[in-house]
Amino acid sequence: MVPRFAAFVAIICLFLTFPVAGQTQSTPKPKPHVVVIGVNGMELDVIRPLILKGQMPNLAKVIKKGAYGKLRTVSSPNCPRVYSTIFTSTKPEEHGVTGFLVGGITANTNMLKEEPIWSMLSKHDVTVGMANVPATFPVMPVNGYMISGMLTRGKNCEDGILCAPKLSEVEGGAAVYPESMKAELLKNVGDFYIDCERMPSAEQLRGHEAEVIDSWLKRVDVIREQQTKLFDYLLKNHPTDFTWMVQSCEDRTGHWLYPIAPYNVGYNPKINGVRPDAFPNQYIGFDKVLGTILNDIDENTYVFIVSDHGIKPLREFEETDPHAHMDHEKTTPVIAKHDFADGDDVPGSFFAMGPGIKHDLRLMGFEASVYDVAPTILHIYGIDQPEQMRGHVLTQIFESGDNKVAKK
Ligand SMILES: [Zn+2]
Fold first, then answer.
1. Which protein residues have their CB within 5 A of the ion that is ligand 1?
2. Per-position DSSP letters for 146-161, written without gaps between them
């Protein structure tokens, strides 16, 4: 453990008595409001046609009122690896969460060796709310609340990898901070799934393809409904200055139901011919979630929609097993992936709107990277970028002089 992280742990422990966000605060002046919406594996090749066809009206609105473009990601991108990079603006080798497994153990927050943004914001009296953000299990104390996401372990999801325990079934650590909030969520939101559904195995699919696909997609719809209810409840009942909420069913669907054509690797008409709209439909579903979130926030809230990577049909001769980290059995017929050695093959995406952010601005090439998200958010709160951060503030998205951005 590096000394810097030891200091972070010591300081954050002082915050253990933070009030739950939404309760009385003695902050003298209001702080900027920022909502980050994470979509695991948002693929621009798939969402752009949907936007053109008018099937993602909420995202189209954000594009019109803000800035958008590709987000350069890291090599061999996957969720824990990239999210921890976004949290800390440091390289995977520096923050320590290099993949789903680190030294044979499922990635967890105890492995994080660099200070994450939620801790920096908490120290600056910014209230923080986080829900279903990947690689945040076990949850850590913040000046607000934290509900873990992907990699949460529990019943039927013992290793925590690409599966979903219900809130009441979590084992091996806390999924909710502060602990008292868990009963409140169970009462008011219900016993929701913390992550998306595990993908079926080849054996489960064989001979029952259409039936398994349809029941799996139904479960995904239920999870998205539960998640929408959770996000809506939190935004209405526990508003925080900084809020970060993430969806992960899009990526999970893409891995085995990407709308590939017969010439693609792994094409099986019995599976890939059944619901070619399953993957695009995930983004149409996401757009509705986005609509709910936008209804819960005001015009002065900064909105960032960030994807850690895209996802593409198999197309490279690489050592990486396309089934790696996919499920227990590693037999799901995976036809698309994102952990290509060259991260530029599967860029993430970035959308931003809010006070002082330029309208209708298209970022070309790789103007923005996953390293730049944290410095840009800190900038909005007038917090200087710490030395270890590798990214930079995306000044080009702000109106000249960024004088509308809050200063210390
Ligand atoms: Zn994935």
1. 251
2. EEEETT--BTTBTT-S
